[in-house]
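Worked example 3 (structure in, sequence out).
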């Protein structure tokens, strides 16, 4: 089956089984290795991308659902020479340790900020529930997302496409508890 996927504003026609996870096509067919394979089960968030404004797990999203939709990966947020506000904020806050979770964190945070760049710390914590970091850089990630929101409010362009809503998580990790 051939499917045409719009990724980061460009159309790509791929030949793959309809139930192939988007993550596999991104990494293996399109050479977009930003989204990571963590669990493959929709439980860690390392594979998060934005589809029509929603932060989604690309490891559990089959490509047959995606024709005509707009997909944004971390590569669509900016470049090494011209990082987007989210990427620059993560650099400025040195928010990565091993870095494996960071593209997914950025995409879910971008989904939130595209809808509301003035999101509060509590709203950021809530939005990032589905994404796990095993290194423990959560506080730096929080600071980076808030910094990115401030930059976007001060004229930094929103990245990705459309309005964004972040899928709720069934389980809130301890770090997502409201600040005291
Ligand atoms: Fe997709 Fe873990 S790899 S949620």
């Amino acid at each position: 089956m051939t499917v045409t996927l719009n990724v980061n504003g460009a159309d790509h026609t791929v030949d793959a089984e309809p139930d192939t996870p988007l993550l596999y096509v991104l990494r293996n067919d399109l050479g977009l290795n930003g989204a990571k394979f963590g669990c493959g089960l929709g439980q860690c968030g390392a594979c998060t991308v934005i589809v029509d404004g929603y932060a989604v797990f690309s490891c559990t999203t089959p490509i047959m659902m995606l024709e005509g939709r707009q997909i944004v990966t971390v590569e669509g947020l900016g470049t090494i020479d011209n990082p987007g506000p989210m990427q620059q904020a993560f650099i400025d806050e040195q928010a990565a340790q091993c870095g494996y979770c960071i593209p997914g964190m950025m995409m879910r945070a971008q989904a939130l900020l595209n809808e509301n760049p003035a999101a509060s710390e509590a709203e950021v914590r809530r939005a990032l529930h589905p994404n796990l970091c095993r290194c423990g850089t959560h506080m730096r990630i929080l600071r980076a997302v808030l910094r990115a929101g401030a930059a976007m409010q001060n004229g930094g362009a929103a990245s990705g496409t459309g309005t964004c809503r972040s899928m709720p998580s069934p389980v809130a990790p301890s770090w997502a508890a409201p600040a005291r």
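Notes: The chain has a mean pLDDT of 90. The radius of gyration is 15 Å.
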